[in-house]
Amino acid sequence: MANRWKNDLTWDDVTPEKAFLNRRQIIAGMAGVAAGAIAGPAFADKLEPNSYEDITSYNNFYEFGTGKDDPKRYAGALTTKPWSIEIDGMVDRPGTYSFDQITSGMTIEERIYRFRCVEAWSMVVPWNGFELSDLLNRVGVQSGARYVAFETAYRPDEMRGVAFPVLDWPYREGLRLDEAMHPLTIMATGLYGRPMPNQNGAPIRLVVPWKYGFKSIKSIVRITLTADQPPTSWNMSNAREYGFYSNVNPEVDHPRWSQATERRIGGGLFAKRQPTLMFNGYEREVASLYRGMDLTKFY
Ligand code: MTE
Question: Could you tell me the distance, in angstroms and rounded to a whole number, from the CA of residue 39 to the centre of ligand 1?
Fold first, then answer.
C-alpha cells in the first residue's frame, strides 16, 4: 500500500470507511473506487498521524514501569523471537501457534486509527496488522463461545515492572465475541510500516479503536474463547473506575476526571483540548453493537 502517512495526509484519508474500501479492493482486485464516492467522515477535524517518535516514546506498558518513558527505556529486555500464542478454550483447532504461523497468509494492511487513552490524551497511529476475525475464523470458534480473553506475557526476568503489584499479572483483557469479530478490531504487528517496537507491544498486540487504550493489550501470548465474561486486569484492580466495556464515551466520566475532552499528544503544552467523540469517532461503525444497552451501566 502507498505511504499514506506522508505529510499531505488529512483526516479524510484515514476514515475507517476508506480502510474498508481499500481492503475490499485488495480482496476483490477491483479498480480503485473514487474517494468522492465515500460518505463524509464522522470526524470534524483533520488530523495527521503522530510522529514515530511520539508514538514510541510516550507509552503505557506497566510490565516495564508506570512512567510514560519506562517502556521505551526498559521494554528492549523483552525477547520477542521466537514468539508463540496459545489459542485455547472453545475453538475447533486449539494449539500453540508460532508468530509465523499466525501471520502467514494474512493480509497485513495499514490502518490509521485514532487512539484515545482513558487518561484523556490521544494520538493517531498508522498500525500494520490484520483483522482479528481472520485469525478466529482460522482456528474455528465454537458455537457456545461468547467472549475472547487475552493475556500478555509474564516474564519477571525480562519485565522489571511485574515485581510491583500495580496490577494482577499477567495483564489480561477481554472482548465480547461480536466486538472481537468486528472488522475494525485488528491484531497489529507493526506501525509506520516497521515491525512493532517493544514498547508498543511487540511482536503482536490488539487494537480496538473505539475503546479506551487499555483494552488494546500488548505482547499477547494467549487467546481463549469462553462462554462467560472473562476477568480483566483493570476491572479487577478497580471495578468502579474501569468497566469491562470501556467504550470511549464523552458522556460517561471517569469517577476522577472528565472524559468530555482530550489532549492530543504532540500538540504542544498550550494546544487546545479537543472534544472527545462518541466511540472515539467510530460511532457509525460500532454503535449497533450496543443498541439497547445502558452505557452508563455497562461502561
Ligand atoms: N498492555 C499491557 N500488556 N500492559 C499495559 O500496561 N497499557 C494499556 C494498553 N495495553 C498496557 C497494555 C494502556 S493503559 C494504553 S493507553 C495502551 O496500551 C498504550 O499503548 P501505546 O503505548 O502503544 O500507545
Answer: 32
What would the 3-class secondary structure string for 85-143 be?
Answer: EEEEECECCCEEEEHHHHHCCCCCEEEEEEEECCCCEEEEEEEEEEEHHHHHHHHCECC
CA of 63 to the centre of ligand 1 (A): 10
**What residues have CB less than 8 Å from 33, skipping those under 6 apart?**
21, 25
pLDDT tens figures, 69-78: 999 999 999 9
Is the CB–ligand 1 distance for residue 173 below 6 Å? no
pTM of the model: 0.87
Compute, in angstroms, the gap from residue 176 CA to the centroid of ligand 1. Answer: 19
Of ligand 1's listed atoms, the one at least distance from the Cα of 199 is: 22
Domain layout of the chain by residue ranges: 11-289
Alpha carbons within 13 A on the beta-carbon side of 182? 25
- What's the CA-to-centroid distance between 38 and ligand 1, angstroms? 32
All three cell numbers of 169: 499479572
| Residue 118 grid cell | 482513558
Tell me which of 61, 68, 115, 158 to substitute to probe ligand 1's pocket, judged by most ligand atoms within 8 Å of the beta carbon. 61
Give me the chain's average pLDDT, please: 88
Gap between the Cα atoms of 211 and 207, Å rounded: 9
Contact 60, 117 (CB under 8 A): yes
Q: Which atom of ligand 1 is nearest to the CA of 71?
A: 22
**pLDDT, tens digit (0-9, with 9 covering 90-100), for 88-144:** 999 999 999 999 999 999 999 999 999 999 999 999 999 999 999 999 999 999 999
Cell of 195: 515491525
Per CATH, the number for 11-289 is: 3.90.420.10
